[in-house]
Design a protein that fits this description.
about 25% helix; 5-stranded mixed β-sheet; alpha/beta
């Protein structure tokens, strides 16, 4: 209590005394016992009121015994049940938690963990993932400044997260209790499958498979990759106690569009305890990105062959060289390359006005520039009849797509009539022109994007010399051909923005988090903060459906679909206000990682114990663990002095005293006829 508070209480006592004296004794003609009693009651009442108004804080000291924390971590993942240790794990956890010796010495708390960390949960051993490092991080947050031991009942098989061996803090001693049979069984396993998520139609894609073996003798096994009932690849692999891993690389054909599901399978004549891990499903989405390109020219020129060969190095592109009069239907093509358009192009350009195909225009000495001024709005031409050679300068600020400088400044010059080329607003310049060492201020290659319409122009013929020069300097055409491919890719991609954009994978593994995110934009293409998005999900096989609501995050909306079984699903995302919708599909592959194990990871659990100065125990000698913890002198209860502060306004007895004194004063006055 501060000096100010004490002073206020003294003043309050004096004020209460003065008021009670004035009210009962100052004007009294005859002072008696009754008046003194009434004055005392009034004094107590007034002083209690003043004390409540001052509200002094009273401090008092308590001594508390603080026990050392003893967290008991129980692995609640599915692998414990698969190893047949679920009943034993429950029994051991209860035995440690209720032990009287441990409870007298420690503050014993039981926690369960799988991909989450929980307290007070009855273990059901249904966790789809094991994350031991997250359990260690949660303990660090809960017991920040404490030194304590940890008992962990687990098989040590972590499926997600960082290495748990180094996750526990330095002053924490870990005592793992190893759950599972440590006997070595013969086991063949398809470990990891590395494959790209996407492949292009009619191409081959690589698959890398890691095969693992556990056993004490040499084994020959058959490894195959299957799609449905069809075997796509098959080979024999050999293992021995000294050779327990194999890496198999296979090239598969992408011959069907869509999500293609495959199985990596390993079999042998040897009996195995766990055959679930002999098969692993994986999937690849095959994309048809074939582009039909019309290279239209009325003149013969070496550029035509160089452009065709450069673009067709990407097997998804096919270039057809045609004259303007030979094109029957523009609907057959994804892109038009107009090489030196002249008067014969007029009818063809009129036709493309309606079709609206993206164009890549290359000019030269045979180009009709007046015609181009009428049919394009990227640049304006003012050309003379004199020919000129133009060198290229790379613009590092170009940002429509990623294109590195492949040595444009050192390429041979392109040729076209001398004149002025002025780029219009909204045009991006990749290359600018230079005559010898003098910059002209005019572009040499430009790109434009206007909504879904994309265009490009290159000013000058003899681009074939660029391809040859690149090969002379680099012994390959690759860099130049990639430059052409990126140009074509930009022009064949119509990126018209949608108001509802939904992001999802084409397939997920069973047990993994399944998250679908969405963005919704208003008419100004601004992110709409108040959108109401719902998702309707349907299982294609069973027809069962379920609805979900999206939750708003940071500039996106998200929904979690965890817990879905293996199968194919279709879904529709709808925005309630505008009724805008998006439909999609994905597949959940049958793969439960917690069923992959036949043994506990004894080596890592022993290493964890060694790193933390602990000891690994087996279920049979858990009594030794209890005894070691009970007799460990490193952990002793500590006595703490706790200062508790409580304001007097919280004391109910003051109100009781006020009620009693007021009642006593009223009855006394009533009895003596003073009312």
């Amino acid at each position: 209590m501060t000096a100010t508070t004490v002073l206020l209480l003294i003043v309050a006592a004096l004020a209460a005394f003065g008021l009670s004296f004035y009210q009962y004794l100052f004007r009294a003609k005859k002072k008696g016992t009754t008046l003194f009693f009434l004055a005392f009651l009034r004094f107590v009442t007034l002083f209690a009121v003043f004390v409540l108004l001052i509200n002094p804080v009273v401090s008092h000291k308590d001594l508390q015994i603080a026990k050392t924390p003893l967290p008991v971590l129980l692995d609640n993942s599915q692998s414990i049940k698969e190893l047949g240790q679920d009943s034993l794990a429950k029994l051991l956890a209860e035995k440690i938690s209720v032990n009287k010796q441990l409870k007298d010495k420690y503050d014993v708390q039981l926690y369960t963990f799988d991909d989450a960390f929980e307290t007070g949960k009855t273990p059901d051993f249904k966790g789809k993932q094991t994350r031991i490092d997250q359990a260690a991080q949660n303990l660090q947050q809960m017991y920040r400044n404490a030194t304590y031991p940890v008992v962990m009942l687990t098989d040590g098989n972590q499926t997600v997260g960082n290495d748990y061996i180094y996750s526990f803090k330095e002053n924490t001693v870990v005592y793992p209790v190893v759950l599972g049979d440590t006997t070595t069984f013969t086991d063949l396993r398809v470990g990891q499958v590395n494959v790209n998520k996407y492949a292009f139609l009619k191409n081959k894609f690589p698959v890398e498979v890691f095969l693992q073996y556990s056993g004490n003798k040499a084994v020959n096994a058959s490894f195959s990759i299957m799609q449905g009932n069809t075997t796509l690849s098959k080979q024999t692999v050999s293992f021995s106690p000294d050779k327990k891993a194999q890496v198999v690389n296979v090239l598969l054909n992408a011959d069907k569009v869509g999500v293609q599901t495959y199985r990596a399978v390993i079999t042998s004549a040897e009996p195995e305890k766990n055959k679930y891990n002999n098969v692993k499903n994986f999937a690849v989405e095959v994309i048809d990105q074939r582009s039909e390109i019309a290279l239209v020219s009325s003149v013969n020129h070496p550029d035509l062959g160089a452009i065709k060969r450069g673009i067709e190095t990407n097997k998804q592109r096919r270039v057809t060289i045609l004259k303007p009069s030979e094109i029957k239907s523009l609907a057959d093509y994804n892109l038009l390359i107009l090489y030196q358009p002249d008067a014969s192009f007029r009818q063809f350009l009129e036709q493309n006005k309606s079709a609206g195909l993206n164009t890549f225009t290359i000019t030269g000495n045979s180009t009709d520039y007046n015609l181009l001024n009428q049919y394009q709005n990227l640049v304006s031409f003012r050309m003379s009849g004199q020919r000129e050679d133009y060198l290229a300068d790379y613009n590092s600020q170009f940002s429509l797509f990623s294109q590195e400088d492949i040595g444009f400044a050192n390429f041979p010059p392109l040729q076209q009539p001398f004149g002025t080329i002025t780029a219009k607003e909204g045009v991006s310049v990749l290359l600018s022109s230079r005559i010898r060492n003098v910059a002209t201020g005019s572009p040499l290659m430009v790109f434009s994007e206007d909504g879904a319409k994309r265009s490009a122009m290159l000013f000058g013929e003899n681009i074939w010399k660029w391809r040859v020069d690149y090969h002379v300097n680099n012994k390959t055409f690759e860099g130049f051909d990639i430059f052409l491919d990126k140009t074509v890719q930009f022009l064949t991609t119509n990126a018209k923005r949608k108001s509802l954009v939904v992001n999802h994978e084409s397939f997920y593994n069973s047990g993994e988090p399944i998250t679908i995110s969405a963005e919704y934009f208003n008419k100004n293409y601004e992110f709409e903060e108040n959108a109401r998005l719902t998702l309707s999900l349907k299982n294609k096989k069973t027809g069962a459906s379920k609805n979900y609501d999206f939750l708003k995050g940071n500039k996106e909306y998200k929904v979690n679909l965890d817990g879905l079984g293996a199968g194919q699903y279709t879904f529709t995302v709808k925005e309630a206000t505008s009724n805008t919708s998006y439909s999609g599909k994905f597949e959940v592959l049958d793969f439960e990682i917690e069923k992959q194990f036949v043994n506990p990871d004894l080596a890592r659990l022993k290493q964890l114990a060694q790193n933390t100065n602990g000891t690994a125990y087996y279920p049979a000698n858990v009594e030794d663990l209890i005894k070691a913890l009970a007799e460990n002198d490193s952990y002793k209860p500590t006595q703490k002095e706790v200062i508790k502060k409580s304001p007097l306004i919280e004391w109910v007895w003051i109100l009781v005293i006020m009620a009693v004194t007021l009642a006593a004063e009223w009855f006394t006055r009533k009895y003596n006829g003073l009312l």
